[in-house]
Task: inverse folding
């Protein structure tokens, strides 16, 4: 490979720039080549509509993929949870690095925990998945909350709490970690309370499928356990025929006996946004060793969830 700079396509948001910068450093280390960031504006960045209304799936990804296909950038970094579940044949998911903390977190006024919020507390989130699970938890634990749809970057969202417009907002731990603001979190939500979005906390590094040298170099950053976990989660999402704005939570985690990883557990949940009805199931099996095995784990759980009425809880099914 030459010593010419590699061009990394990234969204312009502070979070995207932070995570792309971290990937750029890692790619420089494994390739010995400089990496320059190429900022690309996506439809999801410019639209002020709620994600559920603009289709959710792919709105942050399409412009980056178009730049890859046109050869304007050599590779791109995405938040994995933004990627549509279908992978275009012309592009390769060259690496899925080790995942950050997948949990959701609360930033609340007065350093409050979720369960200590006052009656009628207003909690902001743009995610139907978070609304469904927070409302379901509140219903079963006698809490009185109101979930309020919001959009905007981390600064905008946290400002709604600081300015007294909301009592709390829900964000992803991984994003706050990457921009160095994890100390503002007032409560980490256990995955037993809120299952994260499929792929949450993981990044996807994508390049042209024909660029074998670059695929091999980027592959040095791949974490096989993370790849197996997010493949199972996304397979569940795809089999439920749900877009990334649907109220689906999923998490695959490794079950270890001491230092030895024994099994992978996949948990999934679908619910109505008011939290009145949910279908939540889990399955455990051997750690997938192939892409096909990881896909099968997700499909099996989706089949069970659909048999219990999951489809009827998702509103408009995305096709």
Result:
């Amino acid at each position: 490979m030459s010593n010419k700079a590699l061009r990394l396509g990234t969204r312009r948001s502070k979070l995207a720039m932070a995570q792309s910068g971290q990937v750029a450093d890692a790619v420089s280390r494994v390739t010995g080549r400089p990496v320059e960031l190429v900022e690309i504006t996506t439809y999801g960045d410019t639209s002020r509509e709620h994600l559920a209304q603009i289709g959710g799936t792919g709105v942050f990804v399409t412009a980056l993929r178009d730049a890859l296909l046109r050869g304007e950038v050599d590779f791109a970094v995405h938040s994995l949870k933004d990627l549509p579940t279908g992978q275009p044949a012309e592009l390769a998911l060259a690496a899925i690095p080790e995942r950050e903390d997948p949990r959701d977190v609360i930033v609340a006024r007065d350093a409050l925990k979720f369960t200590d919020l006052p009656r009628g507390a207003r909690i902001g989130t743009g995610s139907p998945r978070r609304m469904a699970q927070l409302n379901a938890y509140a219903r079963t634990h006698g809490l009185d909350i109101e979930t309020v749809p919001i959009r905007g970057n981390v600064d905008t969202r946290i400002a709604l709490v600081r300015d007294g417009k909301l009592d709390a907002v829900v964000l992803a731990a991984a994003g706050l970690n990457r921009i160095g603001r994890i100390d503002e979190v007032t409560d980490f939500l256990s995955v037993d309370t809120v299952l994260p979005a499929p792929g949450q906390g993981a990044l996807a590094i994508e390049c042209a499928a024909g660029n074998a040298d670059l695929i091999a170099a980027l592959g040095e950053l791949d974490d096989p356990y993370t790849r197996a976990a997010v493949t199972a989660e996304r397979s569940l999402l795809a089999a439920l025929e749900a877009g990334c704005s649907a109220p689906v939570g999923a998490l695959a985690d490794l079950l270890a006996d001491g230092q030895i990883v024994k099994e992978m557990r996949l948990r999934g949940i679908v619910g109505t946004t008011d939290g009145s009805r949910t279908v939540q199931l889990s399955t455990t099996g051997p750690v997938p060793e192939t892409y096909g095995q990881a896909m099968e784990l997700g499909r099996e759980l989706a089949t069970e969830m659909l048999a219990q009425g999951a489809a009827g809880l998702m509103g408009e099914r995305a096709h």
About this structure: Residues 50-56 have pLDDT under 50 and may be disordered. The two ends are 41 Å apart (CA to CA).
